Every structure is written in C-alpha cells, then in structure tokens.
DNA sequence: AATCCTTTCGCGCAAGGC
DNA sequence: GCCTTGCGCGAAAGGATT
C-alpha cells in the first residue's frame, strides 16, 4: 500500500457527534505520509472549535502571580487605605517608617538599610491617600518568602543577589536575612558568597547548580523518619503476605524447600552451603574467620539439624547432628545448662561473585525434576512422604513475623537482596527514584 | 504439619561458607512457631559476629546532636570568653540581654516573651566566667532552624507545639515565628492551629497529615519543569513505539480499523459516529452547535472520505463524498481554489457517559468475527481484499509523529484518555504519586 | 593591629489581629 | 486580654586599608 495512488488519504478522523454536542469530537488517529517524506512541510489536521469549547491548554500554569506581577496579593484582598479601596480583606495597615513627611509615592522604602535611619518622627498614622499602604499581610515574612522563591526560580542557575532581590522586592535587606537564614537551616539554600545565595532545592527537584542531595540535618532526620515509617509499613505488608500465603491451606503442600531450590540460588553457586534447621531462639555465632573457621550454634528450645549441601553430589550429602558424615564437617554436641551446644568447622573453596539471585520459590519447585537431598534427620522423616521425585528438603512453618528476620549478607548486598522473591521492585518504594 | 512434634524446628538457616569468609552467612528464612502463640516471648535467632564485621544497624541515627544535648555547636567551636575557653573558633560573644547584673547560670533566657522586658542596663561586656556565653552563631536563626526541625522530626505525626518548642529550645517564641513563617512560605510547614504547626515535607516524603503537594512557587516551577521534561520524554517514547510498531512489516497486515473496532469503543456507545479519512493537512471546523449542527472539512492535498457508523445496522452505512446515503447526512463538495470543501450536517440522539474506554487494538480485531462496514470509496477498494470476514475499515499509514496528533476530547477527559491502549499506568510517571 | 566600612543579623518593642 | 509578627536599632562579623 505504499503510496498506491494520490487518492490515498493519510489520516483518519473519527468525529463523534452526540446529540447537539457537536463540539465534542475525537480524532482517533492521524499520521503523515510516513518515511517517504514527500511533503516537506508538516502535515497535520487543524481542529477549529468555537471559543466556547476551546480546549484547555495542557501547558504548565503557575497558580500564584507569575513573574512580572510580583506584587499581587494572592490570598487576601487589597487594602482599603484611607477609604477608596475595595474594602474587602484586612483593614488598613498603619505604621510604616518610611512615610514620614514626604509622601512621594513608591518611595524606595529601603535600599540596603544603609543611611536611612533618619526619619522616624511620630509615625503619622494616617497617610493622605495615594501611598499604597500595605496590610500586615502584604509585608509578611511568609509572603515575602514566596516572592523570594519566585525570584530565585527565575534565575536559571539558582543564584540570587540579595541586594538585587531587596531592590526588586522593595524590602529591607534585613528581612531577606530572616528568610535566607531559615532556608539555609533547612538546606534549601546555600550561601554562595557575600550577597549571594544559591538555591539547592529538595533532593528530588534538583537542578541548577551542584545538586548535593539535600543534607540538612533536620531534613535528613525527617526524611529518614519517613523512610523508616514506610519501611515499617512494607515489612508489615510483606509479613502479612507471607503469613497469608503460609496459612492458606491450599499452599501447605508447597511449603518446603528442596535441595534443588537451594542449589538453584545463584549466589550460592560454588559455595559450601550448610543449612541449619533450628528453633527460633537458636543462637548462631560466627567468630572472626581469621581466628578459626567455626560456627557455633546453640539452642535451648529444641534440637538443631544441620545439612550440608555440596555442589556436586546431588545425593545423600545431608548431615545432621546425629549422623555426621563429611570429613571436613565436624559436628559436636555438648550439653549445656538447659540447652544444647553444637559447634562445627567448615572448609571449602570460595568464590566471591554475587549476583541478584533468582531464588526459586517453593511453588516453582513443583515443576522441577528435583534431585533431592534427603535429610537424614529422624524428626523430618514424616515430611519425607512426598509425591514423586520431590523429596522436600525441609518444610516451612506458617507464621513469619517481622522481628524474626535475621539476616547475614555480603558486603555488596543490601536488605533488598533478601526480598528478591517478593519482587520488591514492583512495590512503590523503588519507584520513588524514578 | 501443625505442630507435629516438639522436635519440629521452626527455623531454617542457610549458612553460606565461601572460603574463609565465614562471617558471610545468609539466613534464608526464619519464622516463629506461628499462630499457636505458645511462646509468649519473642522468638528469634541472634547472629553474633565479631566486632570487625558488625552489621550496620539500619536504624535512623540523628547526625547532629539529638534531643537532650541541643546546645552543642556543630560547626563552630565554642568561644573563649574571658580566657579559659578552648580558644578555637569565634572570639567571645558579648552582649546578651539577659545577663544583666545577675549571673545565675542558665537563667531561662526567655519563656514566652511575656513579662520579662526588665533589665537591660549597660551590657556588662565581660561576665565573670561560668556564664556559658553564646556566640552569635549559637543563637543564630539558622542553627535554631535546624534544632527546630529536629524537634519536628521527633514527633511522629509531624505536629509541634510552638510553646513547647520554645521551651525546649530555650528561645523566645518570637524567633520561632520567624522560622515558621518562612517555612510556611516554602510550604514545608503548615499552620495547624494556634500554637501548632505541622510538617508537610517535600512532596515525596509525604505521610502523616493531609499531604498537599508542596506548592512553593519556586519549588513548583522547578517541579513542573521536571514534570514537563518527563512528559516530553514519555511522548517521545510513545511516538517512537508507535512508529516502530507501524513500520514493522510483520504488523502491516493488522494495520487497519474495522467497523467492529470502532463500535467497540465504549465511549462511542449510542453515539453517532462519523469517520473521516483525509489527508493530514485537512481542516476540520466545528462551529458552535447552538448555531448549526455542522462540520466543515477542507483539504487541498487529496480527497476526503467520510463514513457514517451507526449503532444498529452493521452493513452498508458507509458513506463517502461520492455516494452520500443517509437522510440526515448531507455531504456537499465544492471546489475551492486549490482544494475541496466539504460540509456536512449531522443529527442524532446523545448520551453523555464517558468511561475510560477500552479501545480495541487493531491486532485484537483479527480475532473478532467482524461485521464489517464496507467503505464505498473507490480508492479503498484495493485494501478490501482481506482474508475471510475481516473487511478492514481503513488502513493505517506507518509513521506517526508527535506533532501529528490532533485531539478532541470531552471535557471530562484528559490527554491520558487517548493513550489508554499504551497502558500509561505502567509507566513511571504515575508511580511518583505513590 | 588599629581603624573604618560593609554586611549580617540578634533582639525585643510595639502594632496588628483576634 | 493574648498570640502573632512587622520592624528597625545597634552590635557582631567580616573585609579592606593603612
């Protein structure tokens, strides 16, 4: 259909006509004559509608007064000075140092606060009329701050000269100091040099200038607090999900881990893996490897099962406290006061590469032709009655509460690495970083 | 497996041992004995590692002095008052209104600024020794702002009582007003009620309270700029995708629209729909429906085809410039200087409901047993040779550039409504709003 | 280091607004 | 009355000059 004839239209317009609302129309698609750029000029369809239904421009529009009319009074009405003002809003503001005897309009109220500590006579409470008296609101720090920010936004590099600002905003420089000091305290601003400050922006709206992530101490604390709260929420959610999943009777039969599952974890590739099954209060102690290659486990609530999963031999590499098996694995059991104390020493060739693993979920395992590792523990024998070739490694107990997570990670890993199987990436948290 | 025996361990630990890095271990899962809360005390496994590899606590830690020692001087050293001070940092700060004659240490400098405008004698420049003189910096607005923020972070709900704050920070309330006013100007804070302000935080760390997106003007401009850029990016991406899809030869055979497709668009339900197929420069003019129910189309690059799709009769409702057909549809063709001018008037019963439509994609159409509407235009006859019952409505031309979109939407609709089929929801943009 | 000038800004009075 | 806050004095801090 490549330009079969000059009569080939190249746009399709769907015009919906519902009753009298003729002005509502839809152009489904429209497109030029493509690649073969025959028409050098842009081709497009113009839709001309009556003014009444002019489509809202999707342009950004700044709500408050935009640059240029900085002196509007957004929230409050104008004043009613001596009587001829709209009368809405606040009553007239009196006292104003500058309007001493001279009543020249718009007298630069202050310049740099320099030599103008002269007049201060007896504040004439009622100035004639013209002098645009400002309400208290008009000169408020809050409003001034807004104006100041606008000004700041104006400059592309985010740098602003205070004298200039004071001039434009027609305020004493003193007031700007109030603003800059506070903003600096929140690290939204930075003193660049004498009379010059620079906008830093909040960590996300960075732009213009050295975007050091906002590090105001106060802000940081706040943000971290927020973050913490969010994480708490996430943890709660995750815990809940897991609990739900585990409680669900339908899932019970999948609640186990096979040797395959473990071996499939990429980050454990070529590693000597020891699986420990123990009561929750069990203590796992790992002394500095420089001293001795040992792991101490102690439990007072029940027995500890230890399994060794090597990479090569898929069968019968399991070991437990009762039937230790491998040469380099020594498992001893001592009986302490009110508990057992096991200690074992391991040895193996290492390999440091750690990728984000694709830890196979238990459910996943049901599809694999598992080459199981049979646990030799007697206490597990009951679970061993599993269909087909899936001999479970160990089964999971249902509930999983937040404070039961205990993690040990590589240096390169973060907490998120433990949550791979929960697909943390789809949770809102990460999306915050765009 | 519901508590089959007391020998049932309730945790599984996977200990990875890579070479000598014994301290690197992973606990795959760990969970307590669930629902049947037999153990009232918390169950968990402790991992004890040597100090050298102590895991960084994931807790929030306040960098600056945390509450309680608010009077440290983070950036500057302390003063060297009369001589016995550390001598580093700034020279001694003199003047301090409160330290008149009495030199009682830590005299509450101010309370609420109430009745304490008494002493102010002749600032005794050198106070004996003990009075912890403060440098100008110590009492600076900037520092105070930081402290203030810390305090704010302390409260979980982000609400802070000013009197309380003034009390804790040992400053006149007046100073806090300076801070709150400015912060309010930047919308980091909100006046909640008399004596109470609330933290709003930057738009992303929202939480706790009505999270009005931060609307400081300066901030807003910056954020909108970002947003604009992001949208530009999205548009570019979308355009590119569409172009790719259209150019892909494999997709060519699906590049058409059937009568079914159009009728399937929910928002067009019970509407009189007119499809227009015209060159891209075609002008579509819709006068105010109050004046006349007319649509004017004009093209100078090629013929215009107009199709009427009514809801009921699936067959032969198509119309084009040459063979007009329906009573209420008048299509006239005039020959202007270098173009054609068509004008048509339509009439129909309306229906206002507009839902987010599920505009069927062209590809989708291949599965439908379409009841096609055959276009009567001669120029289209070539495309009519389609397999089976799928008589295409009109075929698409490949390229589709961004400025070739021309949209006409209902008032209730937004631009996104046009992008439904691209599943804009899965794009990062929306995720920003958590 | 003494002097002077400029910039920064603590501070609290008193006006404004309930 | 109380809370809020504009306002500007005057001192401190930071150069610049000699």
From TrEMBL, chains A, B:
Q: Basic and acidic residues: which segments have biased composition? A: 95-106
- Compositionally biased intervals (Low complexity): 346-355, 368-382
Q: What InterPro entries does the entry give? A: E2F, E2F-DP_heterodim, E2F_CC-MB, E2F_WHTH_DNA-bd_dom, WH-like_DNA-bd_sf, WH_DNA-bd_sf
- What cellular component GO annotations does this protein have? RNA polymerase II transcription regulator complex
Limits of the E2F/DP family winged-helix DNA-binding domain: 136-201
GO MF, any single term: protein dimerization activity
Xref: CDD domains: E2F_DD
Q: What Pfam families is this protein classified in? A: E2F_CC-MB, WHD_E2F_TDP
Q: Where is the composition biased (Polar residues)?
A: 73-83, 356-367
Q: Cite the Gene3D superfamilies for this sequence.
A: 6.10.250.540, Winged helix-like DNA-binding domain superfamily/Winged helix DNA-binding domain
Question: Subcellular location, in the record's words?
Answer: Nucleus
| Stretches the record annotates as Disordered | 73-136, 339-382
The record's keywords, sorted A to Z, are: DNA-binding, Nucleus, Transcription, Transcription regulation
Indicate yes or no for the key word Transcription regulation: yes
Stated family: Belongs to the E2F/DP family.
Q: What is this protein called?
A: Transcription factor E2F3
Organism expressing this protein natively = Chanos chanos
From the broadest rank down, the organism's phylogenetic lineage runs: Eukaryota, Metazoa, Chordata, Craniata, Vertebrata
